[in-house]
Amino acid sequence: LQLVESGGGLVQPGGSLRLSCAASGFIPDYYGIGWFRQVPGKGREVVACITGSHGETNYADSVKGRFTISRDYAKNAVYLQMNGLKPEDTTIYYCAADVQCVSLGFTGYWGQGTRVTVSS
Predict the structure, then answer these.
(1) Which of 14, 29, 46, 70 has its CA 20 to 30 A from that of 104?
(2) Is residue 53's pLDDT more than 90?
């Protein structure tokens, strides 16, 4: 399984970005697939994850109400719509897949990452 992220960039505070993750290979429905980031002083944070055939989602408290994860099963892709971006959202975002959402970035699969910079 390979995961390739795109969509990062520079945006002003309050702005929006949409990250995309293209997966090559089969991902079982029961797998969690989503995004994690490395936060200075905080470590790895699972930002958002979607799992199950019904697409159950969960989010870190720091992004609830601002970020939305979605999955296109036909295209084997996952997206992260990020609105209301803050400077503290600045970091590299990784697309990842694993048996459980909580283990994203520790085990399983992840891509090379895409950098998001929020600055005026």
Answers:
(1) 14
(2) no
Mean of pLDDT values over 83-102: 95
Q: Which amino acid is at 116?
A: V
Query: In terms of DSSP bridges, do strands 91-98 and 109-110 run parallel, antiparallel, or are they unpaired?
Result: antiparallel
The DSSP code sequence of 55-69 is: TEEEE-TTTTTTEEE
Which has the higher per-residue pLDDT, 104 or 84? 84
Which residues, other chains included, contact 69 with Cβ-Cβ below 8 Å and sequence gap of 6+?
34, 35, 48, 49, 50, 57, 59, 78, 79, 80, 81
Name the residue among 104, 109, 115 with its Cα closest to residue 19: 115
What separation, in Å, do the N-terminal and C-terminal C-alpha atoms of the chain show? 37
The first and second tokens of residue 2, run together, are 């390979």
As a whole number of angstroms, the distance between CA 32 and CA 49 comes to: 6
